[in-house]
Amino acid sequence: MSLSTIRHFLNEHKRSLIWLSCFNTGVALFITLVLPTKQSFAVNWVFSMLIGYSINIVIVLTRWIIWRDKKPHRIAFLLMCMAAAPIGYFIGGSIGMVFYGLKMPSFVTVMKNGEGILVIMSIFISLFGGVFFWNQSKLAELEAEQEKEKARIAAIERQAMQAQLQLLQAQIEPHMLFNTLANLQGLIAIDTQRAQHMLEQLIRYLRASLNSSRIEQTTLQHEFDLLEAYLELLAIRMGKRLQYQTNLPEQLRRQAIAPMLLQPIVENAIKHGVEPKMEGGSIHVSAETDSEFLHIYVIDTGMGLPVDYDENKPAPQSQHPNQSHVGNANVRERLLALYGPRASLTLSANQPQGVIAHLCIPLSTQVH
Fold this sequence. Notes:
By secondary structure, this protein is α+β, with helices and mostly antiparallel strands. 64% of the residues lie in helices and 11% in strands. The protein has helices at 3-12, 14-34, 41-67, 74-100, 107-112, 116-190, 192-212, 220-238, 263-274, 324-339, and strands spanning 218-219, 242-247, 256-257, 281-289, 293-300, 344-349, 355-362. The strands form 2 sheets. It has a 5-stranded mixed β-sheet with strand order 2-4-5-7-6, with helices on one face. Strands 1-3 form a two-stranded antiparallel ribbon. The chain starts with a helix and ends in a 6-residue tail after the last strand.
């Protein structure tokens, strides 16, 4: 048996070995204080350790010989523990006798000298220990099953979040793509230079969007690149009715973030704020941090919030999936699932007009 195998065995059974050592020490203390033996606690402790570990080894070997990797029946296992006790007692006791240079007594001598009570006691202790370690093993199995179930649930949640992300992209991309292609078709005939620029931005956007659909975590740099391509496409289509600006500090470019958290917010700002406004408006996207949170702001100068807007009010069931309230609710659900209750999305009025969307994400929280 190699040293690494022994080390692996000790690590795997560390808790059981600690319990067994404490158990053996308790038995030695009981024998010293209660039973009329002439030995010191130190001697009783050595014998208790030798006998206890010998019984345990006999139990482990017997279990392996009879059941191998199969799970034994509880009653059969406890009977085996009781049968192993006298065998382990004499093996451990004999080792102790040799260690102290004492003459090894026969079984009959042991029984005549009144030490038979120790043999009987070892049987009951083995029975008690068998019940204890059986329950410990059962508890460990339940904990392992619970961890497996947690891992399974986490995998399902990740799959659900990925499906939700893909569904969100499916909601965002088609109408934007069709509008862009329609505009591109018109521009080709009248302004080939703008058409070429629009096509380049469309390719840039689709490439970044495709990458986002395949990953669970991205960077702010990637998300801002995606937003800039998206906003540039809209700016070509809307002309002077849309001005935009992004501000991402150098130190935040590699900051990790879940994909597709920003674009639904920006799309809401365009679709429900800037686009319906006759003269259009502007979009400003920025990011900053404090000691605990990443703050991302999407500020528009569009139509502003409805008079009766309440972000705590559930979205109506009849509302179209792309409408603003539902889009914000989807972002909040993803924030809760990915970052926990400390993450938030809040909307407030911008002065003199428009909306400030504030995305707040804890820096200490990794994407689940």
